[in-house]
Design brief:
With 267 residues, the chain is of the alpha+beta class. Helix content is 39%, strand content 24%. A hairpin with a 2-residue loop joins strand 2 and strand 3.
């Protein structure tokens, strides 16, 4: 979007890239950032839905600071050391008055002046006190984007349809893949060999599992389909093994936590 023009609500905090979508939202100096590749989610539509879901999670769980807190942030042009408190100078540089000023809304600007001639040294302290009282009248959160409030209220700006789970690296189809299915490749040992279709799946720490289907034995189309089916079985077994491993790790962690809790009680 042109500079100064907010993105549409659905694309708030989301930036389209050639490979997918990038989410970037800054809260109190901290950048919340995540990438959603089209290859990892099976296409642009699913990648965008996941990006929007994560953006919504950040908006709801890390809201912008209150307007009153932002109004207390020191400004570069402030020369008094207190935000919202200003002084009026006489021609010779002497402070003539102290002023407390707070912007509440376009039609409500609070301002109170305290004359040094009338109040002496107390004028500055009174202006500071008045500024604190003015801030109490400022409510709500800092305005970041028109979509923020709707997202926090649960009014989704994007479809609530089904979400495909993120694909593992082994499920992503590479550019040099000729089968259209990740982990399924056509191999020819030499120019005179009819070739075979290979299903192969790699599991970290366990190496790879593979199975070949000869074109000579099954025919090109059947061999390819058999390799695709084998690849699906390999992935299912991998997911089951990974799930079992994660469950064992959670069990060990819970057991350790219970042991540590018991040790603290005994002490």
């Amino acid at each position: 979007m042109p500079k100064g023009v907010p993105n549409p609500a659905a694309m708030y905090g989301i930036y389209s890239r050639s490979w997918g979508f990038e989410v970037s939202i800054v809260r109190n100096g901290v950048r919340h950032h995540r990438l959603f590749g089209k290859a990892s989610y099976g296409g642009a539509e699913q990648a965008l839905l996941h990006a929007q879901d994560w953006r919504d999670h950040i908006v709801r769980s890390v809201p912008p600071q209150p307007r009153s807190a932002r109004a207390e942030k020191p400004r570069a042009n402030n020369s008094t050391g207190v935000t919202g408190v200003f002084h009026h100078l006489a021609p010779g540089g002497r402070v003539r008055a102290w002023m407390a000023k707070t912007y509440i809304a376009p039609d409500e600007i609070l301002r109170t002046d305290f004359s040094v001639a009338e109040l002496g040294d107390a004028a500055q302290a009174l202006a500071i006190q008045e500024r604190a009282l003015q801030l109490k009248r400022m409510t709500g959160l800092a305005h970041i984007h028109p979509a923020e409030e709707a997202i926090r209220m649960g009014l989704s700006a994007h479809p609530a349809g089904p979400r495909e789970p993120k694909r593992s690296k082994s499920e992503i189809t590479r550019r040099n893949n000729t089968s259209g299915v990740s982990g399924v490749h056509f191999k020819t040992p030499n120019p005179s060999h009819p070739g075979y279709w290979l299903a192969i799946t790699y599991t970290a720490g366990k190496g790879s599992v593979s199975k070949a289907f000869s074109v000579k034995t099954y025919g090109a189309e059947v061999a390819k389909n058999m390799a695709i089916a084998e690849r699906a079985n390999q992935l299912a077994e991998k997911r089951q093994a990974t799930g079992n491993q994660e469950e064992r790790q959670r069990g060990k962690a819970e057991q350790g936590a219970r042991a540590a809790s018991g040790a603290r009680r005994n002490n």
